[in-house]
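Thread: quick sanity check before group meeting

JM: Hey all, I'm pulling together slides for Thursday and realized we never actually wrote out the predicted structure for the chain we discussed last week. Dropping the sequence here so it's in one place. If anyone has concerns about the input, flag it before I start.
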Amino acid sequence: MGIDAVKVGVEVDVSGGLPGIVVLGLPDTAVQESKERVKATLKNAGYAFPMRKIVINLTPADLRKEGPSFDLPISVGILAASEQVSAQLLGDYLFLGEVSLDGSLRPVAGVLPIAAAAQKLGIVGLIVPADNAQEAAVVQGLEVYGFKNLTDVANFLNNPERYQPVQFDGRKELTKSLFSSPDLKEVKGQAHARRALEIAAAGGHNLIFVGPPGSGKTMLARRLPSILPPLSFEEALEVTQIHSVAGLLKDRGTLVSDRPFRSPHHSASGPSLVGGGSFPRPGEISLAHRGILFLDELTEFKRDVLEFLRQPLEDGYVTISRAKQSVMFPAQFTLVASTNPCPCGYFGDTIQPCTCTPAKREQYWAKLSGPLMDRIDLQVAVNRLKPEEITQQPKGEDSASVRERVQAAKERSQIRFKSEPSLRSNAEMQSRHLQQWCNLDDASRNLLEAAIRKLGLSARASDRILKVARTIADLAGDEDLKPQHVAEAIQYRTIDRMQ
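JM (edit): ok, ran it. Output follows.
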């Protein structure tokens, strides 16, 4: 339910009567179909299928069951009830997996949160398909056995001492993380935009690039993952758990080691972004948890879809309510967006004139509400490259050098957040944190007040400026905010100045 696992008991009774199988406990279509899969699987694996009345009860009876994960426990239950395997270990182990008609086991989704819940419930071990074993073994203090077919499971139940649990060291696995994103050294010019990427990476700040077509907005955004620090082990567990529930780990089976980068198309619907369905599943913003959600051509998204982002951007989670249940998905992501300044794309360009009327430009920007833009910390104008910049070789720093500065700034902020372990970045600071760690001297305060008057900034937007200034100070290695930090943060309100 959401990303939390619920314990389900599988009870099997074989008794006299007309042959047949009945499944009780609110099973969905996939669970009902398991009757025929299990029957064919047992026969093809060489076991006798009891030609008697078989009643399968899934507890608790008032919780709807879905998916093929119940195939393996139902098969084991029938074998144990017909005394073809030993039932001695059934009370201590948790079984899940989909069965094929030839007796082999197929991987299922959501194994990591299930393993975590099993460990908390005191279950001794987990029996899963071999392709899910590494994923489940991430959880410490739990015996995990991965098998390729039903025959191996039966042999384990009859002779458990012959098998060893799967071993997995997730922390070692994380060190293998490879930064496969394009490198910043390939970018020509755009020093201002590169600086904005560095600040966004160090503080977890939301970022939007505004500029004419071909100025490099998308190219810059796709290089942000290359300068982000790697996931910590705890963060990797969070991200992997969400991807496991979404069914994205079936063929991978280990920790997600790189920060997610999700880039939905502008035709995406609201539920696809925030999650949904009759049985809610995580959407793009949750799949981007601890990573980046990139919205290219932001103004092409429907306004009502963009409004779905307002609450998750502020709270760091999304709650999806349905008639029978309400689930919460984590959604602490960095929003990176790009857009043209007007419908034709050339407003403010020094070479090609804009053909849009003021009314068209106003209508174009009306898709982005004020509350949504308030939540974007860095608003950066990306100008067209000069001819000499296009023909020259790139001269900027590579991603590894920038990532070192970002990592150092993150470490400074983490030392500051020791008293607030829930905070992971400067962008997550609340008002009380700003009062504690963003004190302004008179010069900085006067500068900020002048910007608020001239740009008509809201209280939220001014708080965002302070957060960005705090990150700039961290990158510079300064403990106190200085006027130059505040001044640089103010200049990243491009859209406020345009409006």
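AS: nice. The chain is about 40% helix and 15% strand. The CA atoms of residues 26 and 191 lie 60 Å apart.
JM: adding both to the slides.
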